[in-house]
Amino acid sequence: MFARRLIPSTAALIAFEAAARLGGFTAAAAELHQTQGAISRQVAQLEAQLGVALFTRVRQRVTLTPAGRYFADQARDILGRLGHAAARTIAFDGAGGTLDLAILPTFGARWLIPRMGDFFARHRDVTINFSTRVRPFDLRAEGIDAAIMAAPPSLPGLIHHRFMGEMLLAVAAPSLLRERAVTGPADVAALPLLQQETRPDSWDRWFTAHGLQRGGGQPLVFEQFLLVIRAAVAGLGAALVPSFLVKDELAAGELVPLPGGELATDGGYHLVYPADRETYGPLVAFREWLLAAP
């Protein structure tokens, strides 16, 4: 447990941080609309409480001590996080505020981000901080409000909504097929294969669905679907990808569908968040928008 007697008042922290940042008590007093004497007293009380000098005082000038420089950095971080926490707490009673959202990189680039203009037009008081994740992670441990995942994690205390299904499509570049006769699913087994690393059994399922077995060669494995797609365009192999992710490449003729058609999966895309975020204003706004998105 921390010693409560060592925890300074917020007013003292604010006065000290301003004096440290601005290089003096007079400038801090002007910024905080206080007297120079009030700032000096709060800093002196803080030094007495901590038992260490934070400034050296020579005539009318003050300079941070090594301890003062360290504590100034810590105070700045603490005040920033406290302000952020206060703003997020207020957001529980309203829609405005900041949402920290983790997304799948290719899904985000190809599907979500092009639609976000509509969300921000409807919710101008919501800010979203986007980060990307490919592998499973703990939302609560990383301080993430919500995430879009291909499969919800089997952890207690999480709520998830499946908002979109998925169809897989085998595709390849015309250059790869130019000297190969690919007239049916069995011919695909002879092609080099490309695979996204979190879907290690996707090709096996595709071949099984067509009554076949995958060939003995090992697929080239990529972390992200975007890399799988670009590798397919470059003619490195056949890719099995969610069909909505390759609409542009199919329309441009960079990729063509392989025999076999689309394969339905039991997967899809889920909005996942901790139960204690369920009524958080920015998340409520994003959830309602996402679940109604075309």
Task: Tell me what the structure shows.
- It contains 13 helices and 13 strands.
- The protein is an alpha/beta fold.
- α1 crosses α3 and α2 (25-32) crosses α3.
- The two termini are 51 Å apart.
- The mean pLDDT is 89.
Give the helices and strands, then pairings.
Elements: H1 10-22, H2 25-32, H3 36-50, E1 55-58, E2 61-64, H4 66-90, E3 97-103, H5 105-112, H6 116-122, E4 126-132, H7 139-142, E5 146-149, E6 158-164, E7 167-172, H8 174-177, H9 185-188, E8 193-196, H10 202-209, E9 220-222, H11 225-233, E10 238-242, H12 247-252, E11 256-257, E12 263-264, E13 269-274, H13 281-292
Helix pairs in contact: 1-2, 1-3, 1-4, 2-3
Given helix and strand content, the structural type is alpha/beta
Rg, nearest Å: 28 Å
Order of helices and strands: HHHEEHEHHEHEEEHHEHEHEHEEEH
- Low-confidence region ranges: none
Given the structure, what is the number of helices? 13
For the biggest sheet, the summary is: 6 strands, mixed
The overall strand count is 13
- Helical content class: 40-55%
Overall shape: it is elongated
Beta-strand fraction estimate: 15-25%
Q: Give the rounded overall mean pLDDT.
A: 89
Terminal-residue CA separation: 51 Å
Summarize the model shown.
The protein has helices spanning 10-22, 25-32, 36-50, 66-90, 105-112, 116-122, 139-142, 174-177, 185-188, 202-209, 225-233, 247-252, 281-292; strands at 55-58, 61-64, 97-103, 126-132, 146-149, 158-164, 167-172, 193-196, 220-222, 238-242, 256-257, 263-264, 269-274.
